[in-house]
Specification:
With 331 residues, the chain is of the alpha/beta class. The chain is 43% helix and 20% strand. The chain is built from ten helices and twelve strands. Strands 1, 2, 3, 4, 5, 6, 7, 10, 11 and 12 form a ten-stranded mixed beta sheet that branches. Helix 7 crosses helix 10. It is globular, with a radius of gyration of 20 Å.
Length: 331
Amino acid sequence: MTAPQSGEAEVVAVVLNWNNFDDSDACIRSLLAVTYPRLRIVLVDNRSTDGSFARLKESYPTIQFVANAENLGFSRGCNNGIRAALSGGSCEYVLLINNDCEIDAGALEPAVAEMQAHPDVGVVTAKIVDERGRIWHAGGTISLLRGQSYARGFREPDVGQFETVCDTEWASGALMLVRREVLERVGLLPEEYFFGVEEWDYSLQVLRKGYRVRYVPRFRGMHPGGGSHDNHDPKFAYNYYRNKLIFQERHLGRLLFKLWLLPFLVYLKFKMRRHISYLASITYANPSQSPVDEVVFAAWMAVRDHGTGELNEGTMQRFQSVLEDWRKQRA
């Protein structure tokens, strides 16, 4: 039987909104401008409280909407959209795209063509640049030794240095194409994580199931340089380090994780403040106003709370209360 042409496979894009009409609106507009002929859009709302969900439904009556009963975080929220995408039976590929990411009009054709040419490719990841044309993601590696991912060419101007299709170790959740078979065999996004790190975990799961993760440079999108969060926001830092600890214990195993944790605690005690101060110096116009001490405090609280329960909106609210009490004590 002749292999289907790239335009014959249905792709369903899943976009997650939470209190952010402007970015979600721009993302949907970019999807509607895509030249790929068989693209559907599912927008999932994580119980927004700013009226953005109602505005999006009014603005785009032809797309499918899923309303979550609460803020489920990224993985859980997206998974409800993925289930909706797969429920019709005709979807062959799911496009995960952050609501603050805009896809190039001709980006889907090369991504789908790569999938159809190579049945062992389970996920295709994109070249993602920021609004200044600097690389945000062009494939990369994951280090279990450091519990960290590395994106090739991060912050470098995109001057064509990563134009070759190649295998890679992880796909960015900001813009990735996933084969239906992978979602059915490997599963949906791991729900242990509230926001972030799930993309590392999922990429490793896909690889360990025998699929390849492929970087396709013509599969391209724009993601603002600031991203969807401030890395020096203590609430985000708490979430990130909780996620990092979950990831390390899951992939190292309990014994190796305990050994890994010792140098990590040394880093927190002796090196982290200097490291975060350096990052603030290249991020903020006025680095002295960055919450370095709060980020370090958040990391210590993440270690303290690791393994005490699942990460969810309630967990984040409880940390916010702890942080406010800590601030009062220091005032």
